[in-house]
Amino acid sequence: MTTNCSQLKMLAPDGKLRLRDSMSTKDIFRLIESVPSPKAEPFKLWLANLGSERIDEIFDLEIAINRAINYYRNKGYNDQWIESRLKCMLDRNKLTDIWKDGGISEDYEYAILTNEIYKTWAGMKASEYKAYKGLRKESLRDNMTNIEVALTDLGELATRELAKEYKPFGLKQNKEIAKRGGNIAKITRDNLEKELGKTIISNENKLNYKYVDNYEKIENK
Q: pTM of the full predicted structure?
């Protein structure tokens, strides 16, 4: 299993960044399964239960939907927000279906088009937006304010309707449509901010924890 290890710089006790062995989440789970110690049995049982639950969800999709709903409830989201979030997921799938019909097939192409919408209305790519909110692996939309979610939805909805009307094909043409869709959301944002007298882009998130920047920590020393 050591062949699956890679070197990653981590903060050492002496305050310096040093290379340490690291593994992906998938490889860590495989390592746990290979450990013969009885102490590993609780983790193995947990993994077995997790695998069994996912298989059950394949046969009964309602289980997966209920799991997602309960997850959001446990995070403190109300049912109205959850209902809106699930609808957003469906709308997002409708947009990616339109892109697929327009000749988009690669993951990086979907990311480029999504970023085109974000950059136009929010002034940031999705990754920059996440960094602004202090997020890493977490979902950006799950950590948006209601206004931010509404503008994101508007940008994607406008892009979808424009694509249905003009039928762009290929990345270049779809990028132009995505930019036009994002601009619809930007116009709405500009009007709202003019009335409010402040920006609606927030760096707040819904996390109950905070990441520590190792480089910042070292500099503070």
A: 0.75
